Amino acid sequence: MASDEGAELVGQLEAQREVCVRLRQMAHAQRRLVTLEDPARLMALLADRQRLTDELRMVSDRVGNTTERLDAARERMTKEAVARAEELQSDVRLIVQEIMMADENDARLLTARKQQMKAAISNAANGQAALSAYRSGRSVETTMGSRAEG
Predict the structure, then answer these.
(1) pLDDT, tens only, 14-67
(2) Which three-class secondary structure state does DSSP give residue 37?
(3) In this predicted model, which residue has the larger pLDDT, 109 or 5?
(4) What is the dihedral of CA 136, 140, 146, 150, to 10 degrees?
């Protein structure tokens, strides 16, 4: 029974780690797509990533609180199984932290890009207002003011 319990826990932790590794790979692919400014492929990847996140949630629900389970079963498990379970727990924590950092970096990059686009659109609108004012002989301030009022 003890080896079965340890093997089951280690197997569940390995499944959890495997899903985390796949999520990390997707996070790296996401970074490439964010950098390349490929929104269609990025959206497809995000949909796949959501499915994988759902899978991780199911696996994590099966694993439950591994620290408590490991503490409760430690005396009944082999030293090798305990060491492997602890290693897997550590790996999962590190991978999740890496994914979270990558996501935060991507969010910052996307926010900066959004602000740049907003500024570019504003500059284009201002340029258009100046061109219209020039053509009609009105001042730019008058044209800009009427835009702001409308």
Answers:
(1) 999 999 999 999 999 999 998 888 889 999 999 999 999 999 999 988 888 777
(2) coil
(3) 109
(4) 100
Closest to 19 (Cα-Cα) out of 88, 79, 80: 88
Looking at residue 26, its pLDDT comes to: 96
Task: With CA atoms as reference, report the closest residue to 30 among 6, 13, 50.
Answer: 50
- Contact in structure between 39 and 3 (CB atoms under 8 Å): no
Kindly list the domain boundaries of the chain, sorted by start residue: 2-105
- Interhelix angle 39-63/2-36, nearest 10 degrees: 170
Distance CA 41, CA 50 (A): 14
Cβ contact 82:6 at 8 Å: yes
The token pair at 8 is 């089951």
* Those residues with Cβ within 8 angstroms of residue 59's Cβ, 6 or more apart along the chain or in another chain: 12, 15, 16, 19
Q: In the numeric block, which tokens belong to residue 29?
A: 């692919």
Show the tokens assigned to 121: 């659109």
